[in-house]
Amino acid sequence: MNHPYPTLLHQWEELPVGLTTHGDLRHGFVYERVPHITLKSIAGNADIDGIWEEWQETLEPLRADLNAALNQAWEEWETPGEAAKDWPKAPATAHAKW
To answer: N or C, which end of the chain is more exposed by having fewer CB within 10 Å?
Structure first.
């Protein structure tokens, strides 16, 4: 296919039928569209619930151990991302497994 701007299209892409730039990009830039991932598509994904339940079985006991060792009542979103340097060994180990 002879295209006026061959560097704009990859070798494996073809200009869609009926769409041409007529040698001027102001007539329309042709690009490959990709699907957009929306929150609705994530929330509606049945696999998410199974994955969450599977990991809750592993993470809940670790969080309970961490809370007991540090005398805290952290929810899962409140658990620190990194263990503090002054934590005793037991909570630091539980946090590392988290």
So the answer is: N
Angle in degrees, 0-180, between the axes of helices 46-70 and 89-97, rounded to the nearest 10:
180
* Residues 6+ positions from 49 with CB-CB distance below 8 Å: none
Instruction: Specify the pTM.
Output: 0.52
Q: 64 versus 10: which is more confidently predicted?
A: 64
Number of domains into which the chain is organized: 2
CA–CA gap between residue 17 and residue 1 (Å, rounded): 11
In a shared domain, residues 51 and 81: yes
The model's pLDDT over 46-72, given as tens digits with 9 standing for 90+, comes to 888 889 899 999 999 989 988 998 898
